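input
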Amino acid sequence: MSNFWQRTITGILFITVLIGSILYGQISFQVLFLVISLLGLDEFYKLIKTEQREPNVNLGLFAGAVTYILASGVCFDSLPPSYLSIIYPLFGIIFFAELYRKKQDPFGNIAITILGIVYAVIPFVLLNKVASLHINYNSNIVIGYFVLQWSSDTFAYLVGMSLGKRRLFERISPKKSWEGFIGALILTTAASQILAHFYTEFSSIDWAVIALIVVITGTLGDLVESLMKRSLNIKDSGNILPGHGGILDRFDGLLLAIPFIWAYLEIFN
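output
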């Protein structure tokens, strides 16, 4: 099978599962992104691991799962909010566990283990918060975000391919251009105004601000992941999605965009 068809089929299946889970309801949405966050976390640990630097994978995955389940509200129907306090001792246990591992770089291991949770799990927790901003779960908010994210990626690619001459950040990503970035900024903001007519959960101004955040922080998030891969001398973060790379490759924009979107919505809504 050619790479084009592989990418196409994988992309269609990926989007179908993603949108289907979001539309089906809160539980399917939460379960899907729990799986995605843990796959991304495991991917991060495998990428970072070296002979000198060994994150505590098992404890990190356990702490990541507990953090997601409690902080995203999956168990709030049966557990009081005070159970969130469980999350903080988990990070302490990561410190204590290093006493018994006898590794070369104990504090480096602790830092990488916790960084993985912050980078690959917390953004998906905040995505849950954004989805439930109006108390009840609202799939329109999540789909609206992904429409803007995919619009940004598409417009940046098309404009960059057509008009791109000035490199945006050549040291990290030689293909990205200022023209593509500015084109994505303008066209995604325009798309947000169309979106505002259908998804009235936010005002047209809010959707425009979200679009700006998506393009700016999403582009920077993509560059951060490119920086990580370049420093590790790898092309893709994984191969779980044939033709598309790994989980971190597919969600690199979201990982740093969602915290800013959540902060904006919390402060101004």
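quick obs: The mean pLDDT is 87.
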